Amino acid sequence: MKLTPTAVYTAPDFETPKEFHPGDGPHSTYGLTNQISDIVIKAGGEDRDKPSEHNDTVLGNLRAEVTTLQDQINIFLTERMRLENDKANGGDVERRILDEGVEEEEIE
Predict the structure, then answer these.
(1) Is 96 exposed, middle or buried (0-12, 13-18, 19+ CB in 10 A)?
(2) Would the CA dihedral through 62, 68, 72, 73 be positive or negative?
(3) What is the pLDDT of residue 93?
(4) Model confidence over 53-106: pLDDT tens digits?
(5) 63, 54 contact by CB (below 8 A)
(6) Where does this protein chiefly localize (predicted)?
(7) How far apart are CA 52 and CA 94, in angstroms?
(8) Phi-psi category of 25—alpha, beta or left, where left has phi over 0 and alpha has psi -120 to 50?
(9) Residue 19, by phi and psi: left (phi above 0), alpha (psi -120 to 50) or beta?
(10) CA distances in angstroms from 14 to 34, 69, 79, listed in the order given
């Protein structure tokens, strides 16, 4: 028996529901979006909560596919929030902060 997780994103301002499927793989429990930040890693930090590798069982493979699905959803929602934030702030907040050193509180 194979279990495959899926997810569907809907929102009032979103015309077509967005479907997420983990795909064929390979899948791992080491996700792209569930680890400590790069800043902490570069400072010598260690991820003490790092997940163990999954077992090659029905539940183990499901666990790895859920991690892949979680990454897809997190990446999608982060991009959506960034685009909405840019739109709400005239589309150039990030450029102004990075290029001109403008503090976010100063932007209206």
Answers:
(1) middle
(2) positive
(3) 56
(4) 888 899 999 999 999 999 999 999 999 898 888 878 776 655 666 665 555 555
(5) yes
(6) nucleus
(7) 36
(8) left
(9) beta
(10) 26, 20, 14
SS3 content of the chain, % helix, strand, coil (to 5): 45, 5, 50
To the question of pTM greater than 0.85 for the whole model, the response is no
Beta strands in 10-98 (DSSP E): 18-20
Q: Residue 77 carries which side chain, given as an amino acid letter?
A: L
Tokens representing residue 67 in the block: 């991690």
Nearest one of 85, 70, 59 to 30, comparing CA atoms: 70
User: Which residue reads 């069982």 in tokens?
Assistant: 57
User: Which SS3 state, helix, strand or coil, does residue 55 take?
Assistant: coil
**Look-up: residue for tokens 């996700």?**
31
CA dist 16 and 75 (Å) reads 18
Residue 14 phi/psi, 5° resolution? -110, 115
